[in-house]
## 1
Amino acid sequence: MNESVFTIFIVFGFLWIFMGTAAVIALLKTDGKEIRIGKTGLIVAIPIIIPIILTLAYAAFRGTF
C-alpha cells in the first residue's frame, strides 16, 4: 500500500476515535455529574482497547522489520 495513503487512513481513524470519545464524554457530562468509571466499565472497556493497541503495535512493528 502506498505509504501516504496509509498515513492519511490512520490519521482519519484516530480523528474519528477522538471525536467519538469526545461525544460520549459530552453526553455523560450533560447531567452535570462527574464521570466515574467503575469495575463494570473496566470489564467492558479493557477487552475493547487491548486488541486495538495490539493490532496497531503489530502493524507498526511489521512495517519496520
Note: The chain has a mean pLDDT of 82.
## 2
Amino acid sequence: MVSKKEIITEVFKIYKKRNDFVFTNNLIKEFVRKFKSKTNPYDITKLDGTSNLTSYNLGT
C-alpha cells in the first residue's frame, strides 16, 4: 500500500511539471485510486504542517 507521503510527493511532482498547483477533488481521488491507497482523498490535500515539508522529496 502506498503512503500519504508518497501520494503527496507524486501529486506535487505532476503539478510542478505542469506549473499548475490548483487541484480538484476528482483529480485527488484519481491519484488515490491509481495508487490503490486506502487514504482518505480529502486528507491528501492537508499537510500536517509546513515544518514537515522537508521530509517530502519534492525535487525543489
Note: The chain is about 50% helix and 0% strand.
